[in-house]
Amino acid sequence: MEMIKIKINSKECVGQKGQTILDIAKANGIEIPTLCHHESVKLYGACGICLVEGENMPKLMRACSTVASDGMVLYTDSERVKKVRAVALELLMSDHEGDCKGPCTLNCPAGTDCQGYVKQIALGNDREAVKIIKDKLPLPASIGRVCPHPCETACRRTKVEEPISIAYLKYFAADRVLADNPYIPQPEKSSGKSVAIIGGGPAGLTAAYFLALKGHAVKIYDTMPKMGGMLRYGIPEYRLPKKVLDAEIAEIASVGVEMINNVKIGADITLAQLREENCAVLVAIGAWKNTGLRCKGEELDGVMGGIEFLRHVALGEDAKIGNKVAVVGGGNTAMDACRTAVRLGAEKVYVIYRRTRDEMPAEKIEISEAMEEGVEFKFLTNPAEIIDENGKVTSVKLQVMELGEPDASGRRSPVAVEGKFETLEVDNVICAIGQKVNVAGFEEIELNRWGIISADEKYFTTSLEGVFAVGDATNKGASIAIDAIGEANKAASVIDGYLNGMDTPYVAPVLSKREPEDSYFEQFEKAERIKMPVRPAEERKHDFKEINLGFEEEKARAEAARCLECGCHDYADCKLIRYADRYRVDTCKLAGEKHQCFTEKRLEVIERDQGKCILCNLCVRACREDAKQGILGLVGRGFGTVIRPEFNKPETIHVCADCHKCVDVCPTGALKLLK
């Protein structure tokens, strides 16, 4: 066989005379993208993605169908090639109707594959479920208990009846795996690089976990006696048992993370020292200061911040709670504070909130459970003055409010009702209306106009070389734990790149998204959401034992089985979206008429989603040329052409059940094997 030599991207490649450019490139370890080519079928040259540029050649060539000639000099990723590929991909994506990922995953700040782990739970594979979760967050048992689950807000099961209980399923699986055989991945070999992380809360722990798995030496420094941050010192025991948190922190330590407590930056060690001793530093100090009430009397004895109060309780210190307590605020911290006050023995606990119940940002279940425990809510009121006797709080004067016009967030702004007040006799006022960052010890780092650390949103870099920052201490300030975890995971990837001398900003992946018509959901049978069993209010309000009783296994499996599996089953292997992401295409750039979208199961064992089909014709050719069946065919002419089975006799269905070659070659997940 006569051999030839060609150059591809400056690499000298040897091939056989008569081979295509694509074949020679593949044999020499060079990938040229293609969506319509497969070695099991004849050349087709339909998708236009495999175009390459030849030196001194005016036209681009299709690598899959162009026979190479000796001496060719080719470029597979020149600017011209990339531009043309991007246009071809944008054309394909403009007619592609499919969800790469379910809305649950898209709405999770950490990008957790909710659909993936819920499916594994339904199948009884708890360990596999935890493995999927830990690809994004290392604290599933803890976060599953406390997360306000934005994933469930986006769950399309609401179009049928109620969302999947995603968060509780997360901790169901995590608890079982923790108790049985913890899942702890094996770290990569040592990189010889070291990272100091300041802050042992959810962000710091997450970043430490993923950086340690990459082989870096990681130390976490924290000012508190134990790691956990707000998960330990800001969330009460009845919501998150600390033995659960301890077990998950121990898992993080086991992958090689060193944890150093009772260290205050600026006093025990300086930021400058940590920079000098390490290749990178990550600041994840959270927001531990309370926002003031800004009313007369807020400095009195008996007035305290919500975070301060919860921290005292978590440390086992005397919180100095009287018989009558007022908690100001409407978020989850306010709910934690009022319910903790009840458990400490306060006879009367009020929640003061300037809007109505409907506007409260706290989880609905937290509000309902607080009411069950005897907390009285004073809606449409706001502290005007805290009154004292000899410097000690005795009462709070409330301004009565009414709702006016909506503010920037869409909520109706509360407006004072002139001259209308109410007074409550109280021993304590707990302020839980916001959090601020304590930047003592970090004065070298540039802050934004709100006094918060300024960090680049793609690189997580600060004004200091080699110093990164994430979580509540940065940019927009305090948020939910899963937000901080999501940022920390992304930052760990960026820091890993930095340590390896690479410029690797976080860029959100290119995805295909769709919104099904309401009629689509009519096919699903209604199934009631499994409710989490809880201890009775009269029992639970007297102690700090966990209030949730946990799912029984059978009910957890049934709840997980309610998932509609919205995201694409073939996302991980979809060549179309992988190339679209590689060339950063705008999936919405080109608009126009789309092919008719439908899902059919005429072959019973194979489901075909026309919305995902790109008419590469691979399935038709594999059926005809490789399987020798000819069951599939192109139907229609011009733009309206679709692919359908030509017949579906029992013997055909039997053949398909044992073959599925069409499914194997599909580049987009348009075909799904059902049995």
Helix-and-strand structural type: alpha/beta
Summed up, the domain count is: 5
* Highest-level CATH class of the largest domain: Alpha Beta
Secondary structure: number of strands: 25
Task: Identify the overall geometry.
Answer: globular
Per DSSP, the total helix count is 22
Strand percentage: 15-25%
**Main β-sheet description:** 5 strands, mixed
Q: What is the third-level CATH name, the topology of the largest domain?
A: FAD/NAD(P)-binding domain
| Spatial order of the strands forming the largest sheet | 2-1-5-3-4
Mean pLDDT comes to: 94
Protein described:
This protein has 675 residues and is of the alpha/beta class. It is 30% helix and 18% strand. It folds into five domains: 3-77, Ubiquitin-like (UB roll) (Roll), CATH 3.10.20.740; 103-183 and 531-560, Alpha-helical ferredoxin (Fumarate Reductase Iron-sulfur Protein, Chain B, domain 2, Orthogonal Bundle), CATH 1.10.1060; 194-288 and 437-499, FAD/NAD(P)-binding domain (3-Layer(bba) Sandwich); 293-434, FAD/NAD(P)-binding domain (3-Layer(bba) Sandwich); 595-673, Alpha-Beta Plaits (2-Layer Sandwich), CATH 3.30.70.20. It has 22 helices and 25 strands. The strands form seven sheets. Strands 2-1-5-3-4 form a five-stranded mixed β-sheet, with helices on both faces. It has a five-stranded parallel β-sheet with strand order 8-7-6-9-20, sandwiched between helices. The chain has a five-stranded parallel β-sheet with strand order 11-18-12-13-14. The model has no long low-confidence stretch (mean pLDDT 94).
